[in-house]
Amino acid sequence: MSKIQVLDPITIDKIAAGEVIERPASVVKELVENAIDAGATAVVVEIKDGGISFMRITDNGCGIDREDVRSAFLRHSTSKIRSVDDLLHIGSLGFRGEALSSISAVAQVELITKTKDQTFGTLYRIAGGKEETLEDTGAPDGTTFIIRQLFYNTPARRKFLKTPMTEASHVGDLMTRLALSHPHISFQFINNGQSKLHTSGNGKLKDVIYHIYGREIASNLLKAEYDTPGLKITGFLGKPIISRGNRNFENYYVNGRYARNSIISRAIEDAYKDFTMQHKYPFVVLHIEIDGEHVDVNVHPTKMELRFNNQQEVYNAIYSAVDQGLHEKELIPHVEMPE
Ligand code: ADP
Ligand code: MG
């Protein structure tokens, strides 16, 4: 064995990047979540070559102050929390301060950003963790990230990427989920010059569902509504006739985050049991708001896993919301189409 040494920061970031950044879609996820946290009302994502050679994420959010640009790329630097106590009341999607340091460790990054109080924007370039440029530039209010050559300096990672078509479809799925979880934000997704998704941001979830899934699904929805202290559910339940052969259409978002969770899935499927055939899974889009004190999102760096401190309560609430929604269908004879 050789001598024990502390790793240098660039190596640490490269290793850490492996946990957060697996593929182009993970980069897009982190950067769009930052845009949402920055209060953006419109986000445009453009990719080429499945995102492997090129990704551009543009938002009209608050921008980053010139003097904060460098520190934004440092590991564990965040403007969103100050202490562990804040984790109980997380109002933002990000908080770990890892995305920008991770992405810039394994790709070539260009950032153009401007706050409304600044006359000039800032152009910043960083690649493989090494700063290249920090200068003035003309720019609209908001932030644009351009990410080139993902994993150019980590060949082992690059080898695990799939074909550009597969990577692009992961980004597309992600954009769908982002649009469904934030109907108040306009999302556009452009793949190889073609617009694949463009939501209006008018705040109507049903319009987003219509845009993404089309008329047949949008005209077969029942409303879900459930409101108890500490737990609130809104959204839409597909009528049993539009049930699908797999779970891909079980969309639920916990406190604005796309999540997969066995308790939630089971509650939804159990409530549908009497209505659907075996091996059919419901179409749902549910927004679940749970008091930050009852849910831990800090289980894994990607924050897709959740832990509840009262699983039974969560199960019951979701079961009831879905069950009531399905049984009240007589009361909602026809869900009107979006204009
Ligand atoms: P986190 O989101 O966990 O705080 P990140 O590494 O993703 O960590 O981002 C670091 C910081 O950079 C954020 O806390 C935020 O202050 C700033 N930032 C990143 N992206 C944007 C953006 N699109 N608009 C405004 N500020 C941003
Ligand atoms: Mg972030």
UniProtKB/TrEMBL annotation:
Keyword DNA repair: yes
Domain of life: Bacteria
Annotated keywords: DNA damage, DNA repair, Endonuclease, Hydrolase, Nuclease
DNA damage is among the record's keywords: yes
MF annotations from Gene Ontology: endonuclease activity
Residue ranges constituting the DNA mismatch repair protein S5 domain according to the UniProt record: 209-327
Function: This protein is involved in the repair of mismatches in DNA. It is required for dam-dependent methyl-directed DNA mismatch repair. May act as a 'molecular matchmaker', a protein that promotes the formation of a stable complex between two or more DNA-binding proteins in an ATP-dependent manner without itself being part of a final effector complex.
Family listed: Belongs to the DNA mismatch repair MutL/HexB family.
Protein name: DNA mismatch repair protein MutL
